[in-house]
Amino acid sequence: MANEHQTKAWNGYEGEHWAARRTRYDAMLADLNAKLFPAAAITAGERVLDVGCGAGETTRIAASSSRHATGIDLSGPMLEQARAASADLANVTFIQGDAQVYPFPRHEFDIAISRGGIMYFEDPVAAFSNIRRALRPAGRVAFIAGGAQKPDSDSMAAFTTLSRFIPRPAREPGDNSPSPAALSDPDRIREIFTAAGFHAITVQTHETVSIVGADAVDATDFILTWGPVRYALEQAEVDDTGEIHAAMTEALRPFETDDGVRWRSDVVLITATAE
After folding, report:
1. Per-position b or e across 112-137, b if 16+ CB within 10 A of its CB
2. CA neighbours within 13 Å on the CB side: how many for 16?
3. CA-CA distances (angstroms) from residue 28 to 77, 208, 266, 275?
4. Which of 32, 168, 218, 257 has a 20 to 30 Å separation from 92 between CA atoms?
5. Average pLDDT, integer, range 42-56
């Protein structure tokens, strides 16, 4: 597999963490479905490829309005959950593999979708070229990627607080290495997708709302278990997170609502057509 670091993470702690909390993550990302699926406009006769399908919620949604949906993901733990939750669906298939290099049958799919599973390719042009070859001529894509992280975004309330205890290494301008914001620049997106053989490329930024926890304490408990946060704590040799927990909880209090801790952030919706 080409994306070795991601393969290791999603078959280790990161994948196990998401798999054990798949319903919580699906609820947190639910607002993205309302943006992704209208743009995808899947119809009954179509075959769908779901890239970075995780525990399979988006694959099952796609299957409900299509001929067949295939989900591909690196993570064995998450695909175990996906297969169990989809056992009664005859038109769903899951593949463990790397979409950057997986030997998909040529012209197999009418549309490829993704809810946040496309930002971590080591070589995005190669990855999207491979996906394009799997699409029929004039097949299309509808992808959601992470948006630019604004200094005043809601999530920065937590991460700015965390950085008081664990300095975050600054990303150099133009650093496009795999990260949630690796595909946040519209010009770069158009360049990549054009090079990969797509046209009619559209890039739209949308605000989305995520429910991160029932209250500030619950949200902080959850955030401190996230893979990148846990890794940062380990690297900084932080064993006692009591002070960090208290500070982050206080920082998240303003985002508490009757529905839980609500975060607003930007995502990027990408659509394109295969040449």
Report:
1. bbbbbbbbbbbebbebbbbbbbbbee
2. 6
3. 19, 10, 14, 35
4. 32
5. 97
The structural architecture, per CATH, of the domain 4-151+169-210+265-274 is: 3-Layer(aba) Sandwich (3.40)
Cα angle for residues 156, 162, 163 (degrees, 5° grid): 90
Q: What is the pLDDT of residues 9-24, one digit of tens each?
A: 899 999 999 999 999 9
Contact (Cβ atoms closer than 8 angstroms) between residue 91 and residue 70 = no
Residue 46 has pLDDT above 90, yes or no: yes
Would you state the structure tokens that stand for residue 89, as one six-digit string?
């669906």
In the DSSP assignment, the letter for residue 168 is P
Three-state SS sequence of 97-122:
CCCCCCCCCCCCEEEEEEECCCCCCC
Nearest to 3 by CA among 81, 75, 108, 53: 75
Q: Would you tell me how many other CB atoms lie within 10 Å of the CB of residue 229?
A: 19
pLDDT band at 105 (very low <50, low <70, confident <90, very high): very high
Residue 239: CB atoms within 10 Å: 7
Q: Cα(112)–Cα(88) distance, rounded to whole angstroms? A: 23
The predicted structure's pLDDT at residue 147: 92
51 CA to centre of own chain: 10
Report the percent of the chain where pLDDT is more than 90: 78
State the Cα–Cα distance between residues 52 and 79, nearest whole angstrom.
10
Q: What is the pLDDT of residue 73?
A: 97
For the beta carbon of residue 203, count every other beta carbon within 10 angstroms: 19
pLDDT digits (tens, 9 = 90+) for 50-73: 999 999 999 999 999 999 999 999
- For residue 177, the model assigns a pLDDT of 58
